[in-house]
Amino acid sequence: MTCVFKAAQAQFQRLFPLHDKCNAHYDLVPARVNPAIVNCVAFVLLATAVLLWFGVARLTGRGASGSAVRRLGDADLSPVTRR
């Protein structure tokens, strides 16, 4: 009885890959769950990196509006675009 308890305890101590063995041939966690978790984590990391990149570009003046001002220089802007 202790072997079964130790095996179950070891199974739940691991965080990844997720699995919940019903028996030796059947896993209660579908095979699509682990790749979905990896894809979600990768997407969150990518989105965070892009947000940081845009934030740093905006703070340092290298964003789209900063480059437009540098290209125009001292050009006289029309009343429509001067806001």
**Oligomer classification:** single chain
Trace the largest sheet across and list its strands.
Answer: 1-2
Class derived from helix and strand content: mainly alpha
How many strand elements? 2
Q: Helicity, in percent?
A: 55-70%
* Amount of beta strand: 5-15%
Q: What gyration radius follows from the Cα positions, in whole Å?
A: 27 Å
Please work out how many helical segments DSSP would assign. 3
The H-and-E topology, N to C, reads as HEEHH
Mean pLDDT: 75
Low-confidence stretches: none
C-alpha end-to-end distance = 77 Å
Choose one word for the global shape.
rod-shaped
Q: Strand count, sense and closure of the main sheet?
A: 2 strands, antiparallel
Word description of this protein:
The structure is a single chain. This protein is mostly helical and 83 residues long. It has 3 helices and 2 strands; from the N terminus they run H-E-E-H-H. The mean pLDDT is 75. Strands 1-2 form a two-stranded antiparallel sheet. The chain starts with a helix and ends in an 11-residue tail after the last helix. The protein is 59% helix and 6% strand.
